[in-house]
Amino acid sequence: MRVLWTHNFDPGIPNNLVYIDTTAEAIRARGVDLQIEYLGNLRSILQLFRARARVRRLAPEFDLVHAQYGSVCALVTAAADGVPKVLTVRGSDWNTYKSSFGFSYLHTWLASRFTRAAIGSYDCVVSVSRRVAAGMARFAPDAHMTVLPSPIDLARFVPCDKKEAKALLGFPDCSEKWVLFNALSLQNPIKRFDLAKQAFDIAQARHGNLRLRLATDLPHDALPLFTASCDLIVCTSENEGWPNSIKEALACNVPFVSTDVSDLRDIAGNEPSCRICPPDAQVIADNICDVLAGPESRGLRQYVLGMSLDVAGERLISAYESVLERYRRSDRLPSANSRHG
Asked: Which of 115, 139, 121, 40 shows the shortest CA–CA distance to 80?
């Protein structure tokens, strides 16, 4: 099977392609011939039309084309003719930032509208969370949809002794409780770092002996140990698809205190050490202190076992095969093995 992936994530930004590359590793390991195509910056009409022409030119060489993001990337990739198309919607291309009217609101509003405009051109839409899928299903009830969170490498993100992990990071005999906040940019208003910092300061005043650990700009290779060394992760986002930082934390048995985003409420409903809070600094701080005062979590990794490279790779290939079979039945595609031998 030959598959073309398209995306417009700037490869010059550190860690920007981690989860695309991780998923690519999973399906290449299963024999898929995969080409990843960076479409470039799509903020001008000229760049958009050039990218559409490139997709049209490349598409006939592949069995299937998969847009790795909605918004303008989805509109561009919809130009692929004569091959089945898959779209992954990741959350920031569906949800609109609503806390204030400004650039972030306009940017996310346009992205979500572009995604909605493109959905009908795709033979399958992959959502990274059940919550996003539910929203899309209300908008496009006839779309073929599947829920498949981006995978994480469970061989690298593993639980470990926190004292040993802190010592390896240069903090021997550390008695502090570490609270993790992880975002590519602290200036991203959707992540609401100011809210997280305010909640941490309240928790520090009440609990004491805490340290706020920021994973921003940290190389991804350093994240497994850094994440496993922490006692709690805080997420204060206005919205999310399925936050990868929370997956990684759960893989290391690190509990979360989070606003009500993605599918995290389902986990919090079963795990006393995981909490869902309103976007209120005092309430978040109270939950941070409560969780840190409790016993160390042991069984949180179970919630991300289905997001391993093996499981995600198998499920994505199965989705591709289903799309190809539907396409063949519709007489739009030659029979199996006739295109590429």
From this structure: 121
CATH class of 162-303: alpha beta
User: What pLDDT, in 10s, does the model give residues 146-178?
Assistant: 999 999 999 999 999 999 999 999 999 999 999
Compute the radius of gyration of the chain from its Cα atoms: 21
User: Count of CB atoms within 10 A of residue 34's CB?
Assistant: 17
> Which residues are bridge partners to 105 per DSSP?
none
pLDDT tens digits, one per residue of 294-331: 998 899 999 999 999 999 999 999 999 999 999 988 86
Instruction: Give the separation between CA 187 and CA 191, rounded to whole angstroms.
Output: 8
On whether the CB atoms of residues 319 and 27 are closer than 8 A, the answer is no
User: How far from 118 is each of 5, 94, 109, CA to CA, in Å?
Assistant: 16, 12, 14
Could you tell me the two tokens for 186? Answer: 């602290």
Q: Which residues contact 328 (CB under 8 A, 6 or more apart)?
A: 334, 335, 336
- Backbone φ and ψ for 95, nearest 5 degrees, come out as -85, 145
Residues facing residue 85 across a β-bridge: 65
Exposed/middle/buried for residue 302 (C-beta within 10 Å: 0-12, 13-18, 19+) = middle
Per the listing, tokens 């509109």 go with 75
Q: Which helix (H) or strand (E) holds 51?
A: helix 45-58
pLDDT confidence bin for 259, thresholds 50/70/90: very high
Q: Where in the chain is the domain with CATH 3.40.50.2000?
A: 2-151+308-329, 162-303
CA 282 from centroid of its chain's CA atoms: 28
> Which pTM does this prediction carry?
0.93
Contact 73, 8 (CB under 8 A): yes
Two tokens at 26? 């999973």
Scanning the chain, the segments in alpha helix (DSSP H) are 18-28, 45-58, 71-77, 103-118, 130-139, 162-168, 193-207, 223-228, 244-251, 264-268, 281-293, 309-329
333 pLDDT exceeds 70? Answer: no
User: Which CATH architecture fits 2-151+308-329?
Assistant: 3-Layer(aba) Sandwich (3.40)
| Dihedral angle computed from the Cα positions of residues 285, 288, 294 and 298, in that order, rounded to the nearest 10 degrees | 170
Instruction: Flag whether pLDDT at 340 surpasses 90.
Output: no
